[in-house]
Every structure is written in C-alpha cells, then in structure tokens.
C-alpha cells in the first residue's frame, strides 16, 4: 500500500478528527456557512432529514455486511463494504453539516413524557456514540487504506475495529430511531 510512517494513522486521526470537530462547532455556532450542494434553504430543511435517514440506513447495512464478511475471512468483500460505508458516512457528514448550516434543526413535538424519558436519553446516547466513534472509525480506516492485507492483522486495526464498528452501528441505529421520533 502507501509507504508511510507507522505513526501516520494516529497522526492522521488526530488531524482529521480535530478538523471535523472544529468545522462542526463553527457551523453549529454560525461562524461559517456550509452548503456544498447549493440547496435552497426551504428545500434543504424539508428534504435533507429524509435523505440523511436513507443514507444512514444504507450505511448501517454496509457496515453490518462488512463486519460479517471479515468474520468469514472474506477480506476483499470486507474492504469493499467498509470503503462503501466510509464514503456513505462522508456523504452523511456533508448532508448533515449542510442541514445544520441552513438552520434545519427540528424540535421534538411529541408528548413531554416521551421527550424526557425516551427522546432526550436516546439523543444523548446517539450524540455520545457519534462523537466518540469518529476518531476510531478514522483510525481503522487509515490503517486499512495505508497497509497491505498482510500487514493489517499485525496492527491495532482488528482490535480497534471491533470497538469502532460496534459504536458506529449503535450510533447509526440510535440516529435512525431519533429520526423516526422527529418525523
């Protein structure tokens, strides 16, 4: 694969994760505008939540398939499905940042009891998982992209990958549940 320093995945993870968190923070507080799809605000606010949910459901499927393939030692299929998952999650980030930048945050409108005891805990769990899984996913992706098939088992990819895939699956699942509670 790529002839890189052995510290590249760790350094790359720190840089990519930090820049991602910074961009998200700046967009949330309104310091920067983000609309790479050049969508009109009303259209984006209406369509993006549904497109994001579909994207995340497909991502959930591809991650689960990638996980199943590696358990069966089908490495090339694992890599293909995990790369697809990575592309889909990058697409999610672009869509989500666009939605947030255009003011497309939706409030929960259901009963207060569900809001307090189901929606808020579910949202909190989802956000915690999403935030904590990002560096792990980036790390295993960088190892997978920069090491040969033969080198990967000797790295932290298998061990960290198990944690990353679990958090990623739970994050996507809870995100989809939050979507259904909002829409």
Strand content: under 5%
What series of H and E elements makes up the topology? Answer: HHHHH
| Mean pLDDT over the residues | 94
The total of helices stands at 5
Structure summary, number of beta strands = 0
Tell me, briefly, the overall form.
globular
Largest sheet: none
Portion of residues in helices?
over 70%
Residue runs with pLDDT of under 50 for 5 or more positions? none
- The tally of structural domains comes to 1
| N/C terminus separation | 44 Å
Please compute the radius of gyration using only Cα atoms.
18 Å
Structural class: mainly alpha
Outline of this structure?
The protein is an all-alpha fold. Helix content is 77%, strand content 0%.
What does this structure look like?
The chain is mainly alpha-helical and 183 residues long. It has five helices and no strands. It has one domain. The chain is globular, with a radius of gyration of 18 Å. 25% of the residues are buried. The mean pLDDT is 94.
Features:
183 residues, mainly alpha
Please write out the topology.
Blueprint: H1 8-28, H2 41-71, H3 75-101, H4 112-146, H5 157-182
Helix pairs in contact: 1-4, 2-3, 2-5, 4-5
């Amino acid at each position: 694969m790529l002839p890189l320093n052995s510290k590249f995945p760790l350094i790359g993870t720190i840089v990519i994760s930090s820049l991602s968190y910074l961009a998200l923070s700046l967009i949330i507080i309104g310091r920067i505008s983000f609309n790479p799809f050049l969508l009109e605000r009303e259209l984006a606010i209406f369509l993006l939540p549904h497109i994001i949910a579909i994207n995340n459901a497909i991502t959930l499927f591809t991650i689960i398939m990638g996980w199943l393939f590696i358990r069966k030692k089908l490495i090339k299929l694992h890599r293909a499905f995990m790369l697809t998952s990575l592309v889909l999650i990058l697409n999610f980030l672009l869509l989500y940042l666009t939605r947030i930048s255009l003011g497309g945050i939706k409030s929960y409108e259901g009963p207060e009891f569900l809001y307090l005891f189901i929606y808020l805990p579910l949202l909190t769990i989802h956000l915690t998982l999403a935030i904590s899984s990002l560096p792990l996913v980036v790390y295993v992706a960088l190892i997978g992209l920069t090491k040969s098939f033969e080198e990967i088992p000797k790295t932290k990819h298998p061990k960290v990958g198990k944690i990353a895939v679990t958090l990623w699956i739970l994050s996507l699942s809870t995100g989809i549940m939050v979507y259904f509670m909002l829409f």
